[in-house]
Amino acid sequence: MQAERLEIRLDPERRHKLERLAADRGTPVSHLVRAMIDEAYERTISQERLKAALELGQLNIEDVPEPEELSKQLESAYDLPHLP
User: Fold this and answer.
1) Which of 15, 25, 49, 71 is the right S-S partner for 10, CB 3.0 to 4.6 Å?
2) What is the DSSP code (8-state) at residue 29?
3) What is the rounded distance in angstroms from the CA atom of residue 48 to the CA atom of residue 39?
4) How far apart, in whole angstroms, are the C-alpha atoms of residue 30 and residue 3?
5) 10 φ, ψ to 5°?
6) Residue-number span of the structural domain to which 51 is assigned
7) Does some domain include residue 70?
8) pLDDT tens across 25-73, in order?
9) Cβ(29)–Cβ(20) under 8 Å?
10) pTM assigned to the model
11) Is the Cα torsion angle 39, 41, 59, 84 positive or negative in sign?
């Protein structure tokens, strides 16, 4: 993985908070920041998926076709090659 440099200017209070969290976890500040970015990203993606699932659940769909029939409908609607 190629790493890129990112400069972020922090006030002393936020810098102190980061250093304290990093020390508590026994990790460098840079590792902590990367981990926090990953956690925030995953949390956001999970929230988006939940929102989509809730919206799908609220749709008023009476008759859902069988998977094979649905595949055929999608193939014809989007001009896709037939999938086995």
Assistant:
1) 15
2) H
3) 14
4) 12
5) -120, 145
6) 12-60
7) no
8) 999 999 999 999 999 999 999 999 999 888 888 887 777 788 888 888 8
9) no
10) 0.64
11) negative
